[in-house]
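tool=predict chain=A
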Amino acid sequence: MLKKTRLAALAAVLLVATAAAVGPQVTQAQTAAPAATAPQATPAAPAAPAAPVAAPATQAPPAAKAAGNGKTTEVVDNPYGLEALWKGGDAVAKITLAILAIMSMGSWYIIITKVYEQFKMGKHARAADKTFWKAPSVQEGAAGLKKTSPFRFIAETGIEATSKHVGLLEKVDMNEWITMSIQRAIDNVNSRAQDGLAFLATVGSTAPFVGLFGTVWGIYHALTAIGIAGQASIDKVAGPVGEALIMTAFGLAVAVPAVLGYNWLIRRNKTAMDYVRGFGADLHAVLLSSSPMPAKG
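tool=predict ok
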């Protein structure tokens, strides 16, 4: 009986001890379970819609930048343009550009003025053909022409030659004397018509070499920039090479119009001078027929 009582007491003690030991473990397990669940919920929150939403937000700025760059390109000046070349170029580059600009302006001025003069000469030729030969005398025919007409100048020169055939000049044959006088007047008109064409020929032959000099100078600066920088980066080479290309383009832009204008004006002068020479030949015949011939004896 006593043993049963002791066994029952021992069993009670074991049950209490077991309950005391299991209680803290269950509490720890319940506490650990929420802790384990919390880390799983925490990474799930940032991994949810946050990542997909961030991706479009990152892609949006490039479009805005592209649009912004497009607008900026329209507003900001070209750092390698003509204005930048003039502001950033040295004295040699500026002098070269100034020479090319002077050549270009001079060429266009001569082309425009010579075309206008040739137009006026053609107008005077038509007027002389209509009025001069219908006049009763050479003096009246010359007076009917405009003072600026080269045909009036030739006619007055021929009239003066017939009136000055006295003294020592009287020993010269009248035919030869009138021929020489009219030919001198025609040569004078031809010389006036040729004024400025030498400048066009000079510009057409030298402008490409002036532009080539600017090209060589720009390449020299490009090589110098590469040597100083130690590397052939585009930002070091773009400016000087762009300067060289602009100089080359300027040289061609000045030379081509000068050469074309020179050849065109030469052809138009030839046509105009044919009318002048024809007028001089007819005037020579009229003056010889109307002038009194010296008596031979």
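The chain has two domains: 1-32, 82-290. The first helix runs from residue 2 to 47.
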